[in-house]
Amino acid sequence: MSRRRLQKYEAVNSSFGLNITSMTDMFTILLVFLLQTYSVSEVQINPEKGLKLPASQSTVEAVKGLKISISQDSLIVEGQVIASLKNQHFQAQDLEKNDSSVIIPLMKQLTTLTANNTADKNNDKAAPQKVLLQADVNTSYEDIKKILYTSSLAGLSEIKLVTLVGN
Amino acid sequence: MRSLKKVKKQGTFEFELDLAPLLAVMVKLVPVLLISSAFVQMSIIETELPQPIKEALQDQTITTHIKIIASNKTGLNIQIEKGGKKEILPVQLKEQKFDFEKLQQSLVTAKKNNPEVWRLELEPESDVSYQNLIKIMDEARKSKDLQITFPMMDKKTNKETQTNYMFPDVVFSNINEG
Lengths: 167, 178
Hints:
Oligomer: heterodimer
Radius of gyration of chain B: 29 Å
CATH class of the domain at 63-148 and 165-177 in chain B: Alpha Beta
Structural class of chain A: alpha/beta
Helix content of chain B: 25-40%
Order of helices and strands of chain A: HHEEEEEHEHE
Number of helices of chain A: 4
Number of strands of chain B: 8
Largest interface: A-B, 53 and 43 residues
Largest sheet of chain A: 7 strands, mixed
Strand content of chain B: 25-35%
Strand order of the largest sheet of chain B: 4-3-2-5-8
Distance between the termini of chain A: 77 Å
Helix content of chain A: 25-40%
Largest sheet of chain B: 5 strands, mixed
Number of strands of chain A: 7
Shape of chain A: elongated
CATH topology of the domain at 63-148 and 165-177 in chain B: Nucleotidyltransferase, domain 5
Strand order of the largest sheet of chain A: 1-7-6-2-3-4-5
Shape of chain B: elongated
């Protein structure tokens, strides 16, 4: 084989080793970080958009329950917007005329859910009897009280307040 | 000897560790963890307490009532009702905000005088924010200073123990007022 031919042959069949050490280092760091933040909690709570939860020193892990969220502009039950707020307060049309502490759409939703729960009593998919309340830091007690009052009227008196861990 | 010298000279050799399989595992593991990770840790406020405290909470014979009245205008007032007598420990506003440090001190005093009470009634006014409610509950739950402990009787062992829990059971007393 002539020298020129040999050079051409080497150029076609040449292989190069990719240095993956630095990439492995990066992945190792990433893996350690992700393993540290990995949550083994049975319940995953995703706060609604625009909702700023308060921080608490409580470290009790979240339990299964009906998720009610109150952000600055809406009331959400299990991811479904059921009422909108005006100036961070419930609108008059959503409140019962005789008892302004009762939120009509919430009452309807909770009554439906608790009725389904009674029907599916022997079913594993039965709706939970606990309420996980996620409220924005600026929500006034007036609105919180209305939610608590309506929930207790609907038969859901066990209410858990969802907070962020830390100070 | 000559051969030993030869070995010594040739002893510094390099070898490359094959990291490709390790990288392959990581590439698969990282997306799985990224999807299933919860970057914001959540908790709930609940009375998850040691057994003697749980038992003490069920004690219906306690006649002393401790209540916090929270107002954005007047501050926090700790109302202790014992044997028909009412005592009020006021916690004034500090720069137009609730003074949580003073609240903790006042609650420690209230707990020291009434170690049998575990339940606290919270009566906030309508305009008190949710953030402040959570902070009040945080202050009431435990003594922040670990040196401050309160005596409690373990009914099972009949022995006195110490705890830093103050008022872990917070009840909103004005929910049904509408």
